[in-house]
Write a structure and sequence with these properties.
This protein has 747 residues and is of the alpha/beta class. The protein folds into four domains: 3-101, Single Sheet (N-terminal domain of TfIIb), CATH 2.20.25; 111-179 and 379-458 and 467-548, Rossmann fold (3-Layer(aba) Sandwich), CATH 3.40.50.740; 186-368, Dimethylsulfoxide Reductase, domain 2; 582-718, Barwin-like endoglucanases, CATH 2.40.40.20. Helix content is 30%, strand content 16%. The chain is built from 25 helices and 29 strands. It has a seven-stranded mixed beta sheet, with helices on one face. α5 (159-172) packs parallel to α18, α6 (186-196) crosses α14 (344-358) and α9 packs parallel to α14.
C-alpha cells in the first residue's frame, strides 16, 4: 500500500469520540496490512485509554459497563460503579464480551446458502444483494396477500429495538413477532401476574433481609440478575447489623447452596409442596400476618404429609416455618430449579403465598414490586410458544422466517422435531453474528453488529425498585462488514417500500433511538430535572450510561385466587422408576448459560465453581450411587432417558441426592465455532418436549434416566486437587457465635 493511500484511508475512517460516544469508525481497505498510525485520528492518543459507558447484553440482567478502548480497539470490559443494577460488578460472561467482538468465527459479511440446510455451507455476497434478496421475498409474499405468513423470532428483546422490530412486522401486515429463550422465566412472570397482577419479576431485596429461604434460586451464579443479587447477598452477610441467614432448598447443591447456612435436599418435584407446608405451619402456629384468606387454601398442605413426600422431616419443616415467620424481615424466592418442573407455575405461586403469609410483600428486605419500566421493558406474551411456531411451520403457515438472537434448534429437545418443522419453511433469514445451530438452517444471513459496535437501550427486568433506563452505544467501529440490527430493519423497510417504508422513515437506528429517548424525556419530569434541555440530558446520559431515578416503594397483595393454580401432587417425571431410577436435573452453568457462552475460549477455560471442570460436559453422581454402580470419577457413562441418550464422564459429587443426577447445559454444539463445536453433550436433547400450558415455559426437570457404563470417550479435565485434607487442616471453620465475637473484637 502506498503511503498516500494509507493516509487517505485513516483520514476518512478516523474515530470520533465526543460526549462519550463514537461518531465514526476505523476503516481499513481490503487487503491492507495492519501497521501503526502515522497520523492518528485526533481523539486517539497512543497509550492513553478512553472509557465508554454501555450495557452488557449477554444475558437479560442489564448490567451497566465501562469499556476500555485504546487505539480504536476494545481492551477490557468492567462493571459501571454508578449503575444501580450491578454497582460496579460484572460476571465472567460480561467480561468475555470482547471475545465475542473479536471472535475469529464471527460471520464477517452477508452469506447465501449453497449447501443443504444445516450444513453451514455458504457463499459471501454483498449487502445490496442480501437486502435485495430478502426484500424481494417479502414483496412477493405481500403481493400474494400472505403477509401473515411472515414470522419474526427473536431473543427476549426490550427497549427501542424491540419496538422497531414490532413496528416492522406490524407494518408489513403480520402479527407473528415472538420472543424465545430457554430461561425467559415465564413461569415466574405468570405466577406474579396471577398472584399480584403484574407479569414482571419484582425486586427481591436480598441486601436488607435477615432470613432468605431460597427454593432452587442459584442467584450467585445464573438466576435472573446474579451480579445484583450477589452484591446484595454480600451486604446481607457482612452488613453493620445482624448477619442474615440463608437456607437453600434444592436436590442438587448449587453455588448459592454452597454459600448457605443450611442445605435442604428435598426430593425433586416436591419443593412447591414443601413451601406450602411451611406456609400452612405458619398459619397453624398463629404466626401469619395474613391468616384468614389463606387458612382454607393451605389446610390440605400439612407438614406431616409433606414430610414423607418431600423427604424432609416434620421437625425441620416446623423449624423453618417458625424461624421464617419470626425473623423480620424475611424473604422467600423461587428459582429455576422450582419453576422448571411441569407444574413450575404452581411452585412460583407457592413461594408468593409463603411471602404473603409471612408479611413480606412490599417491605424493605422482602418482595418489592417494580411496576415502572418507563413503558419500554420486556413484554411477555404467554400465548406465543415455540410449540406454536412448530405447529405453524408444519401446517405451512410460515413462508418466511426471520431469526435473531434465538437458537431454538439447540435449546429445544429432539422430541420437539423442530428441525423437521424448519425444513418445511420455504425461506429462512438470520441476522445472527455467529453460525449457531439455527442459523445453519438459514437461506440467507445478514449479520448484525455485536453490542460493542451498536446502538441500543435497556430497561432492566427485574429492576431495582426504581426506574432505570440504560443506553448502549458503539465503543469501536465495526470490526467486520456487519450492520446495526436496527439499520437492517430500517434499510429492509425502505427496500420493501409501501406501508412499511412509510411507517419506519428514520434515516438510521442511531437517530431512531435518539428520537425515542426524546419522547421519553418529554414525558418524564424526573428526567428533565436539572438539565438544560434534551441535548444536555442526552450527552449526560451517554456519559453516565443511562438515567435512573430514586427508589419507589410499592405495595402489593397476593390474591387468594392464585390458589387455583396450586398443585396437590409432586411434579411428574417421564419414565418408569424401575427402568429409569434417577431423576435428571439439567442446570444452567455459570459460564455457558443456555449455550451462548460456549463459543468464547475464556469461558471454556473458566473452571466450574463447584467441580472445577473445564472444556467439557460431566454428569454429577452421588459417591454412594457411583459405588453401587461400580463407577469411579472420570468413567464414561451413558445417560439414557425414554427420549434419547448422551454420554459424559462421571464427577463424584456429594452435594446431590443419591436418587438424582445432574448435567450442565451449554455444551454439545454441532455448530457455533471452533471453541464450541463437537465438545461435550447437550442434556436438552434427551428431554421430553413439555411446555407449561399456562405460561409456555419449557419443563427442563421432566424425565428420569438410567446410567450405564459407556465406551471410552471424552476425558474430563478439572483443575481441583484432592477433596481430602489428609490431616493437614487446610479448611478452617468458625461457628456463627464465634464469628460475631470476632467481628466485635475487630471493631
Amino acid at each position: 500500500m502506498k503511503r498516500r493511500d494509507f493516509l487517505k484511508f485513516i483520514g476518512i475512517g478516523g474515530v470520533g469520540a465526543g460526549a462519550g460516544f463514537v461518531l465514526g469508525k476505523v476503516s481499513k481497505p481490503p487487503g491492507a496490512k495492519l501497521i501503526p498510525y502515522l497520523i492518528p485520528p485526533e481523539d486517539i492518543v497512543p497509550g492513553v485509554a478512553t472509557w465508554y459507558a454501555s450495557v452488557c447484553t449477554l444475558c437479560g440482567a442489564g448490567c451497566g459497563t465501562l469499556v476500555r478502548v485504546m487505539e480504536g480497539r476494545a481492551k477490557k470490559v468492567e462493571g459501571n460503579p454508578g449503575h444501580p443494577v450491578n454497582r460496579g460488578g460484572l460476571c465472567a460472561l460480561g467480561q468475555s464480551s470482547v471475545q465475542a467482538l473479536y471472535n475469529p468465527d464471527r460471520i464477517t459479511k452477508p452469506l447465501k446458502r449453497k449447501g443443504p440446510r444445516g450444513s453451514g455451507e455458504y457463499a459471501e455476497i454483498t449487502w445490496d444483494e442480501a437486502l435485495k434478496t430478502l426484500a424481494g421475498n417479502l414483496t412477493e409474499l405481500k403481493s400474494k396477500n400472505e403477509s401473515e405468513k411472515l414470522h419474526l423470532l427473536a431473543s427476549p428483546l426490550g427497549g427501542t429495538i424491540d419496538r422497531l422490530a414490532g413496528e416492522f412486522v406490524s407494518a408489513f401486515g403480520s402479527s407473528n413477532y415472538s420472543h424465545y429463550g430457554l430461561f425467559q422465566r415465564k413461569n415466574l412472570a405468570f405466577a406474579n401476574l396471577s398472584a399480584m397482577g403484574t407479569a414482571s419479576v419484582p425486586h427481591y431485596d436480598i441486601e436488607n433481609t435477615k432470613y432468605l429461604l431460597s427454593f432452587g434460586a442459584d442467584f450467585a451464579s445464573t438466576w435472573v440478575s446474579p451480579v445484583n443479587y450477589s452484591n446484595g447477598y454480600g451486604k446481607m452477610r457482612q452488613g453493620a447489623g445482624e448477619r442474615g441467614k440463608l437456607v437453600q432448598v434444592e436436590p442438587r447443591l448449587s453455588l448459592t447452596g454452597a454459600s448457605a447456612d443450611e442445605w435442604v435436599p428435598a426430593k425433586p418435584g416436591t419443593e412447591a409442596l414443601l413451601a406450602l407446608a411451611i406456609a400452612n405451619t405458619i398459619v397453624e402456629k398463629g404466626l401469619a400476618r395474613d391468616a384468614s384468606a389463606w387458612r382454607g387454601v393451605l389446610s390440605r398442605y400439612k407438614a406431616k404429609d409433606a414430610a414423607s413426600v418431600c423427604d424432609v422431616s416434620v421437625e425441620r419443616i416446623e423449624a423453618m416455618a417458625v424461624e421464617f415467620a419470626r425473623t423480620r424481615p424475611s424473604l422467600a424466592i423461587a428459582g429455576d430449579s422450582v419453576s422448571s418442573y411441569e407444574n413450575g407455575v404452581s411452585g412460583a405461586i407457592a413461594v408468593n403465598i409463603l411471602n404473603q403469609v409471612a408479611g413480606n410483600i412490599g417491605i424493605i428486605g422482602g418482595v418489592m414490586p417494580n411496576g415502572d419500566d418507563l413503558g419500554n421493558g420486556k413484554k411477555i406474551d404467554f400465548g406465543r410458544k415455540i410449540s406454536t411456531l412448530i405447529s405453524a411451520a408444519n401446517a405451512g403457515k410460515i413462508k418466511t422466517l426471520i431469526v435473531y438472537g434465538a437458537n431454538p434448534v439447540f435449546t429445544t429437545p429432539k422430541a420437539a422435531r423442530l428441525e423437521e418443522a424448519l425444513s418445511k419453511v420455504p425461506f429462512i433469514a438470520s441476522f445472527s453474528s455467529f453460525m449457531d445451530e439455527t442459523t445453519a438452517h438459514a437461506d440467507i444471513i445478514l449479520p448484525a453488529h455485536t453490542s460493542l459496535e451498536d446502538w441500543g437501550d435497556d430497561f432492566p427486568d427485574p429492576g431495582v425498585a426504581a426506574p432505570v433506563a440504560s443506553l448502549i452505544q458503539p465503543v469501536v467501529g465495526p470490526v467486520f462488514d456487519t450492520k446495526s440490527l436496527g439499520d437492517i430493519f430500517i434499510e429492509l423497510a425502505k427496500a420493501v417500500g409501501g406501508n412499511v417504508a412509510g411507517k419506519i422513515n428514520a434515516p438510521n437506528f442511531a437517530e431512531y433511538l435518539k428520537a425515542s429517548w426524546k419522547g421519553l424525556y418529554s414525558r418524564n419530569r424526573e428526567m428533565a430535572a436539572g438539565t438544560l434541555g434534551f441535548e444536555d440530558f442526552w450527552n449526560k446520559a451517554l456519559q453516565r450510561g443511562g438515567w435512573w431515578g430514586p427508589s419507589r416503594k410499592r405495595t402489593a397483595t397476593v390474591s387468594a385466587r392464585a390458589g387455583e393454580h396450586l398443585a396437590g401432587t409432586p411434579a411428574r417425571f417421564e419414565g418408569e422408576e424401575a427402568q429409569y431410577p434417577f431423576y435428571l436435573i439439567p442446570y444452567a452453568q455459570t459460564a455457558y448459560m443456555d449455550g451462548r457462552g460456549a463459543n468464547l475460549p475464556w469461558l471454556q477455560e473458566l473452571p466450574d465453581p463447584m467441580t472445577s471442570v473445564v472444556w467439557g460436559t460431566w454428569v454429577e453422581i452421588n459417591p454412594k450411587t457411583a459405588a453401587s454402580l461400580g463407577l469411579k470419577e472420570g468413567d464414561m457413562v451413558n445417560i439414557e432417558s425414554p427420549f434419547g441418550k448422551i454420554s459424559a464422564p462421571v464427577y463424584l459429587y456429594p452435594g446431590i441426592r443419591p436418587d438424582t443426577v445432574a448435567v450442565p447445559i451449554g455444551q454439545g454444539h454441532s455448530h457455533y465455532g471452533r471453541y464450541a463445536k463437537g465438545r461435550g453433550a447437550n442434556p436438552i436433547e434427551i428431554l421430553p418436549f413439555k411446555e407449561d400450558p399456562l405460561s409456555g415455559e419449557a419443563a427442563l426437570n421432566s424425565t428420569r434416566v438410567r446410567i450405564t457404563r459407556g465406551a471410552t470417550g471424552e476425558r474430563m479435565v478439572k483443575m481441583e486437587g484432592s477433596t481430602k485434607e489428609l490431616g493437614r487442616g487446610i479448611v478452617q471453620t468458625v461457628s456463627p457465635s464465634e464469628f460475631k465475637r470476632m467481628k466485635k473484637e475487630v471493631v
